[in-house]
Amino acid sequence: MTEKVAALIGAPTDVGAGARGASMGPEALRVAGLARALARQGVQVEDTGNLAGPGNPWQPPLDGYRHLPEVLHWNRTLFDAVTAQLQAGRMPVMLGGDHCLGVGSVGAVARHCSRAGRPLRVFWLDAHTDFNTAHLTPSGNVHGMPVACLCGFGPDELVNLGGAGPALRARDLRMIGIRSVDRQERLFVHEQGLDVYDMRMIDEIGMRAVMQAALADLPENTHIHVSFDVDFLDPSYAPGVGTTVQGGPTWREAQLCMEMLADTGQVASLDIVELNPALDVRNGTAEAAVQMVESLFGKSTLVREKAPKT
């Protein structure tokens, strides 16, 4: 069996966020032992270092967007870096940075899969749907807009990043752990028919049933991309994020989500975003994120030959 090669790509920016500090996320993940955790799961790791880009000017919105030139620069740079790793046959693991970077990361994966004729399924693990637009939110923070941009609703520069037209189709997306959605954004999400598994559904039927539904009808040779916003976790485990929302998955629910994704054997790229060490306690949130990622790559609480029958 060919050993997986994961290429770590640091994107140290918080230009899309409403709080400073996510720019320190890549180093916090490295300090927490991400590379060692992946190696324990049989993954060869190549750390490509950090991408370079503009600083955060910390200005108010202009025409509905904060820091759009800077956001565009970071996403173009990330798009090229992720594309290069995919073309080289490596698994890109983007270390954010705020979630505006999902435009470049997911966009690169989507364009790559389209060219290769390979099915794509994106798992958006997040407390938020990130489906805002400049017309729906007064903040202008682009970290609340990446899914909308990927689906064709946003500034032309981001919507057409890497190619003409939207990078992502709603049917290729699964959102898990959602529990904070603006009122107008909620209506927009329903209009577009996004596949959302919110915390109420997890409460009602359990994480196992939710993941079975989200993984149903998964085509062979699907490229699974996981966009892991650390605020997916309940803040009791992950206080070091800029937008904490109470009532997230329990520790075991979150682990099960990762384990069931790992069981597919089809996870081929990953984002880890919104880790904010400035708001953390002794790097505990980074350590929690690393434990979740280790489960995503095959670590399990129980060694068994195969999963139980459903």
Automatic annotation (TrEMBL):
Give the superkingdom in one word: Bacteria
Pathway listed for it is: Nitrogen metabolism; urea cycle; L-ornithine and urea from L-arginine: step 1/1
Name the Enzyme Commission number(s) assigned to this protein: 3.5.3.1
Pfam families per the UniProt record, alphabetical: Arginase
State the reactions this protein catalyses: L-arginine + H2O = urea + L-ornithine
Its required cofactor(s), as named, are: Mn(2+)
Any note on cofactor binding?
Binds 2 manganese ions per subunit.
Q: Does the keyword Cell membrane apply?
A: no
Alphabetized UniProt keyword annotations: Arginine metabolism, Hydrolase, Manganese, Metal-binding
* Manganese among keywords: yes
Q: What family does this belong to?
A: Belongs to the arginase family.
| Entry protein name | Arginase
Identify the species of origin.
Castellaniella ginsengisoli
